[in-house]
Amino acid sequence: MRGHGFLIANYVRGNSVIHRTPLWLKFLLVAGCGTASFLIVDWLVSAAVLAVMCGLFLLTGAGAGRLWRAVWMVAPILIVIGLFQWWQLGGPTAARIVLNVLVCVVAASVLTATTPVQDLLDGVVSLARPFKRFGADPERFALTIAVMLRSIPFIAGAFSDVRDSARARGLERNPRALVLPVFITTVAYARQTGDALAARGLGEAGD
Question: Where is the chain membrane-spanning (predicted)?
Answer without folding.
Answer: 27-58, 70-87, 99-121, 141-159
